[in-house]
Amino acid sequence: MSGARRAIYPGSFDPVTFGHMDIIRRAAASFDDVVVAVLRNTNKAPLFSAEERREMLEEAIAEAGLGNVRVSGFEGLLVDFARNVEAKVVLRGLRAVSDFEYELQMALLNRRLAPEVETIFLVPGEDVSFISSRLVREIARLGGDVSSLVPACASARLARRLGAPSGGNE
Ligand code: ADP
Q1: pTM of the prediction?
Q2: What separation in Å is there between the alpha carbon of 36 and the centre of ligand 1?
């Protein structure tokens, strides 16, 4: 396949949330195939290893029945990864105006590095647009129930890692 309808969705996913899953569902419906790209080395020390973050995404994607989505790790330049997997589209989610400045800068920088790669922004449902991995980690750390914010596999792992309630089913 030429890769024209393949999109990558990069991020830290520390851990995957229902916000990410909303974007992944929309992406799967709009592109032939989607590669969720888990950034191995983030600036901040992640709570979960890259392997754990991948496993949680894989479980959540399988559970959602999204057959045209796969998960891959990556490090280094995003545009190099896009070229390696022959994707011409990078997807990002826009939650609020606060995301915009950083995302615009990244999109323009990536365009300078790889003009053939287009960044496309997807808008999540308003019921999940307030969710962020950072706040989920914080709530879990403080013992709050995150089961309405993240897939079951992620709340179970948060519970094991931080001793928060998992909300039941795992
Ligand atoms: P990064 O460290 O690259 O921002 P994240 O895992 O935090 O990685 O986010 C990955 C992508 O998902 C980003 O484009 C981010 O804006 C988007 N995203 C995160 N949470 C949500 C949400 N609740 N709704 C929509 N998009 C989201």
Answers
A1: 0.92
A2: 12
